[in-house]
């Protein structure tokens, strides 16, 4: 089964560049989308800062696969680079919003061969999402802490290998419900400002 058949994934493409502070998972932490209204609020164009890099994202909803599609770019010291395409969505656990994201492997392969994409193992990243006025605050969710040059699990139930969580979705959901995780600061997204219309000439 392709990962895109899960009805819930999250937003943000810069994770592949900044995800070293958080664990990634072999299974999605959530498998259903129960917050369509939030996904609607996430669609559009956004700007943010990730470390010293400026991020611009475009988020669109794919009604066929019931997921968000995220594209964008990052700029640092006037150096421009595109981000890997991502797919995403939102779910709620204990009244908190979580986003699960992964690379859109179908878009990465030449000719968009979905059958070949099934052979690729792409890890999931998880974020906690909070709405503050017209902005979205994103924090990386991690089930382990990287300390003394090694990953140390926050729960004895965690199966961990080099920062990759091997537990299934049911266990990940339980760890989230029980609060056995920690948050790492990541990014605040603001709506892309549209250029003001040029003043009309005098009649």
Q: What's the helix count? A: 5
Q: Tell me the radius of gyration.
A: 18 Å
**Sequence of secondary-structure elements:** HEHEEEEEEHHEEEEEEHE
Structural class: mainly beta
The fraction of residues assigned to DSSP E strands is: 35-45%
Strand order of the largest sheet: 2-3-4-6-7-8-9-14
Largest sheet: 8 strands, antiparallel, barrel
Overall, the morphology is globular
Work out the helicity level: 10-25%
Mean pLDDT: 79
Distance between the termini: 63 Å
Total strand segments: 14
* Low-confidence regions: 1-13
Walk me through what this model shows:
The protein has 203 residues and is mainly beta. The chain has 5 helices and 14 strands. It has helices at residues 15-18, 36-42, 105-108, 114-117, 169-177; strands spanning 24-25, 44-50, 53-62, 67-76, 79-82, 86-93, 96-103, 125-132, 135-142, 144-147, 150-153, 160-161, 164-165, 182-191. The strands form 3 sheets. An 8-stranded antiparallel barrel has the order 2-3-4-6-7-8-9-14. Strands 1-13-12 form a 3-stranded mixed beta sheet, with no helix packed on it. Strand 2 (44-50) and strand 3 form a beta hairpin. The longest helix has 9 residues, at 169-177. It is globular, with a radius of gyration of 18 Å. The protein starts with 14 loop residues before the first helix and ends in a 12-residue tail after the last strand.
């Amino acid at each position: 089964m392709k990962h895109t058949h899960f009805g819930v994934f999250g937003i943000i493409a810069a994770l592949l560049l900044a995800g070293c502070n958080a664990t990634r998972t072999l299974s999605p932490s959530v498998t259903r989308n129960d917050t369509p209204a939030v996904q609607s609020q996430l669609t559009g164009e956004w700007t943010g800062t990730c470390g010293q890099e400026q991020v611009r994202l475009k988020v669109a909803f794919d009604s066929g696969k019931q997921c968000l599609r995220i594209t964008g770019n990052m700029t640092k010291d006037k150096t421009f680079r595109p981000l890997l395409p991502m797919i995403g969505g939102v779910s709620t656990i204990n009244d908190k919003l979580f986003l699960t994201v992964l690379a859109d492997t179908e878009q990465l392969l030449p000719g968009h061969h979905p059958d070949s994409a099934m052979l690729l193992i792409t890890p999931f990243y998880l974020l906690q999402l909070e709405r503050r006025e017209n902005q979205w605050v994103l924090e990386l969710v991690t089930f382990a802490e990287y300390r003394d040059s090694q990953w140390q699990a926050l729960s004895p139930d965690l199966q961990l290998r080099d920062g990759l969580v091997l537990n299934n979705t049911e266990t990940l959901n339980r760890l989230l419900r029980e609060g056995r995780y920690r948050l790492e600061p990541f990014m605040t997204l603001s709506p892309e400002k549209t250029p003001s219309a040029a003043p009309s000439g005098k009649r």
